[in-house]
Design a protein that fits this description.
Layout (H helix, E strand, L loop, with lengths): L18 H8 L7 H13 L3 H21 L5 E5 L9 H8 L4 E6 L2 H5 L1 H4 L7 E6 L5 H6 L1 H6 L7 E5 L11 H11 L5 E7 L5 H13 L9 H5 L6 E2 L5 E2 L18 E7 L3
Helix pairs in contact: 1-2, 2-10, 3-4
């Protein structure tokens, strides 16, 4: 069963690059425009492996959702900063493991809403919904009717924050925004996130920050300690905060886990 907001999306500005469309370009998608590709190519000139890094980030999402379903017993998810629909979206992974799983997607980009029908083709017994909202306003997300109609906040929720917190500058206090979300979730809930970092290659990531700033995109890399703050006092799920490629890989351990410039981790609410 699918839910929609029932309104037309806001006007989409394709004259400037957008982080979601640039990410779509790196993943080989088609929902991107010349400014997105131009800035994406500029980043790729600085970090030639950026496309592989984007795919590693996406693979983490699948591993994290499967872990929450199979090992944490979670059957409902809140995915914030979902981005443009692609393969192995959260509801596809969750509902493959349990067809009755429920997922609410949140994104502030109107182009994502424009493609929501493709994203929300869930199972007949599962439920999906999309909310056009901003991570910087957690109260609006938590109060939204579609969230309340789809998720039961008395039962554990899997909060997914993959590749989104890096788009919120320190001035907007992303830690406080995440804390507001975590405080609203019940015991047994989990949060999984990835975050770009300059810890592995400060020079290259610094150059990307400059390039994206020229393209009017905020990119705020953070250290491992800064990423750890997002989890608050929740219990870390092994292996803790590690390079994204090293978080419970499906195959052999990567030869160079720092080849993708993201920290990744998961934590569980004990009480």
């Amino acid at each position: 069963m699918n839910q929609d907001m029932g309104r037309e999306p806001a006007a989409i500005d394709t004259s400037v690059a957008h982080s979601a469309r640039m990410y779509d370009y790196w993943l080989g998608g088609r929902t991107n425009f010349a400014p997105d590709r131009e800035l994406g190519d500029a980043v790729e000139r600085v970090i030639p492996t950026i496309r592989a890094m984007a795919k590693e980030n996406r693979r983490f999402l699948g591993r994290a959702v499967r872990h929450m379903v199979h090992l944490q017993g979670i059957r409902q998810f809140l995915d914030i900063g979902t981005g443009i629909p692609t393969e192995n979206n959260t509801h596809e992974v969750a509902q493959l493991a349990d067809p009755s799983a429920r997922v609410v997607y949140v994104d502030n980009d109107p182009i994502v809403l424009a493609h929501a029908r493709a994203l929300m083709s869930g199972t007949p017994v599962g439920r999906t919904a999309f909310i056009q909202a901003d991570l910087r306003d957690p109260k609006a997300i938590l109060r939204h009717r579609s969230l309340r109609e789809t998720l039961d906040l008395r039962e554990p929720v899997g909060l997914v924050l993959v590749g989104v917190l890096m788009l919120v500058p320190d001035a907007d206090d992303p830690w406080q925004k995440v804390t507001a979300l975590l405080d609203a979730l019940p015991k047994g809930s989990c949060v999984a996130l990835t975050h770009v970092t300059a810890d592995f290659d400060p020079e290259a990531v610094g150059a990307v920050v400059d390039a994206e700033d020229e393209g009017r995109i905020t990119l705020a890399p953070r250290t491992k300690d800064e990423v750890a703050r997002f989890f608050g006092d929740w219990e870390p799920v092994q292996p803790g905060i590690v390079p994204v490629m090293a978080w419970r890989p499906d195959g052999p351990a990567p030869a160079d886990p720092q080849a993708a410039y993201y920290w990744a981790g998961m934590a569980r609410k004990r009480s």
